[in-house]
Specification:
Largest sheet: 8 strands, antiparallel, barrel
Strand order of the largest sheet: 1-2-3-4-6-7-8-9
Number of strands: 9
Amino acid sequence: MNRPALTTLSLAAALLSASPALAKTDEVPNPFDDYERGEKLAEVEDPNAPSSGSQGVYRVEAGTWSAGAGFQFAYTNTSNGVLVGGDESSETMFTRLLLTGKYFIVDNVVLTRENGRNSTETGFLMEATAFYHYPIGEGFGLAPGLGLGFYAGGSDRDLLLPNGNLANENTSTVGFSGTLHLTAAYQPHPNWRVRSGFAIGILAGSERVSSQETSLSSRAVHISLPLEVVYVF
């Protein structure tokens, strides 16, 4: 075979072997590739995005402030020691205005403080309470809590003295308080929450009678039902 023929055959073979690569290079891009790629990226969950699970708008993030106002329906049973004979007891039912301020120190845990006047004597009560908020559904949550505090005050009481005389005595009282809370809340809006529930508290201390230089026991059981509207900042 002559040289021109060999050259022609070699060139044809080279063109045939290169044609698949050229066909790949010149392939027209699929216009749906970018769309499908974007759909796959959208399916990847953003770790910093807020969850759309059970918490809904029920906000329990650390650093959240809230303030509330409402009413508390309460029952108190008080037992006070006397100088002669057994203890004296009394029962009281009342409604009072409830004002609260709360701060989430960490996620789900809120710290609040309650102060006010004792229902059975002239005095001051201060109690710090920690609640753990547990979201249970879209905007709903449970909030068990525990409060610890102290109270101090005084009263004027008619006491039977050891000599048989009845006297109006001035007393001073100091003691400690503890309260167990079980509340439920609903937050239909990121800034508004409604709260209600049940609380039972115990106060225990001593009452000093100024003229007798002696101390008497002082105890109280307090049951309350709060109803509160809370604004979450």
